[in-house]
Amino acid sequence: MVAQLRPLPVAVTQPPGAARGTYYRLPNSPAALQAMANYLTGPDRSAARRYRHRLRRRAFLLASALLRFALAEVLGRPADRIALERRPQRRPRVISPRWAGRVALSVAHTDHWVLVGVLPGQARLGVDLEPADRQPAAGLARRLPWADPGRASERLQRWTLVEAALKAQGRGLAGLAGLQLLGADHAGWLFESGAWRIRSAPLKGLVGYPRAVGAVALARETR
Ligand SMILES: CC(C)(COP(=O)(O)OP(=O)(O)OC[C@H]1O[C@@H](n2cnc3c(N)ncnc32)[C@H](O)[C@@H]1OP(=O)(O)O)[C@@H](O)C(=O)NCCC(=O)NCCS
Q1: Residue 155 class from Cβ within 10 Å (0-12 exposed, 13-18 middle, 19+ buried)?
Q2: Domains detected in the chain
Q3: pLDDT tens digit string along 154-165?
Q4: Measured from the CA of 89, which atom of ligand 1 is nearest?
Q5: Is the distance from CB of 116 to CB of 67 less than 8 angstroms?
Q6: Tens of pLDDT along 25-48?
Q7: Residue list, ligand 1 pocket, CB within 6 Å
Q8: Which is the closest atom of ligand 1 to the Cα of 163?
């Protein structure tokens, strides 16, 4: 029997503009994959084979299915008509329908959860998720763009703010050296990287076990 597992909507209100998006998550579990099987295509299954690790492979498949689920809702199109490009070290992209081009997509996964975001419009989107009991490696924590090292409890949240920002910009970890922290206000943190202004905010309301910490970022080109 197929488990009755529905994608869980994630409410996002910050940073400004992010609330126009649609966000879903699912447990990274065999039952969730079985429940979402109708949202997967042959190309998804072939692309997943590049991942040797079982949990990573399942996360990739679940993210593809969840993106198609969210896109069908946002675009008002049947999920099986939505073709996605899923390349390593790249953000996912809608290939067809072609008029769906102005939709930004982002994915994050842990061993236990998969999170996706779909944001219509010109801004670029980045989401990040980490297990709450994890800490960034000392070498990475030192490279975070805050002047003070911060309390241990803050470091993981800061790391997710930065990863979401780097994904929104599109360079991934390679963009860390060029990411400048401009400041914070009620709506989250403001970063700059080259021609990009990036706003990143903690993701609230991530209930469920095991606990996770996350962030959502929006990047806009300034010139
Ligand atoms: C993209 C990156 C920033 C995040 O990777 P990650 O934390 O390992 O993994 P996440 O689950 O958060 O994100 C992976 C997703 O990011 C997306 N992604 C990858 N490269 C991207 C890029 N350049 N721009 C935007 N999105 C990107 C992909 O959709 C990917 O999922 P997919 O392969 O299933 O499509 C990566 O560059 C990286 O290596 N980060 C360092 C990881 C680390 O050390 N974490 C310590 C945590 S405490």
Answers
A1: middle
A2: 8-221 (3.90.470.20)
A3: 999 999 999 999
A4: 20
A5: yes
A6: 999 999 999 999 999 999 999 999
A7: 60, 63, 86, 89-92, 107-109, 128, 130, 134, 136, 140, 159, 163, 166-167, 170-173
A8: 3
